[in-house]
UniProtKB/TrEMBL annotation:
Name of the protein this chain belongs to: FMN-dependent dehydrogenase domain-containing protein
Cofactor: FMN
Sequence intervals crossing the membrane: none
Annotated FMN-dependent dehydrogenase domain residues: 5-53
Coiled-coil intervals: none
SUPFAM superfamilies: FMN-linked oxidoreductases (SSF51395)
Taxonomic superkingdom: Eukaryota
């Protein structure tokens, strides 16, 4: 998963110009809105730390069984 939007924007700019950038930004917005809806958030203010999982939130090494 991308950690920033710069790379997709630059690739879309190179491939399709301004229209490509508009398309990729709309795709990112649509995905974010879908993620919010699936999380039960109707606005940005409803997103809390409990909705966000980072690589530091999960165990790095699980013991072998």
């Amino acid at each position: 998963m991308e950690r920033e939007i710069g790379r997709p924007v630059l690739f879309s700019l190179a491939a399709e110009g301004e229209a490509g950038v508009r398309k990729v930004l709309q795709m990112l917005r649509d995905e974010f809105e879908l993620t919010m809806a699936l999380s039960g958030c109707r606005s940005l203010s409803e997103i809390t730390r409990n909705h966000i999982v980072t690589e530091w939130d999960t165990p790095r090494h699980l013991p072998k069984l």
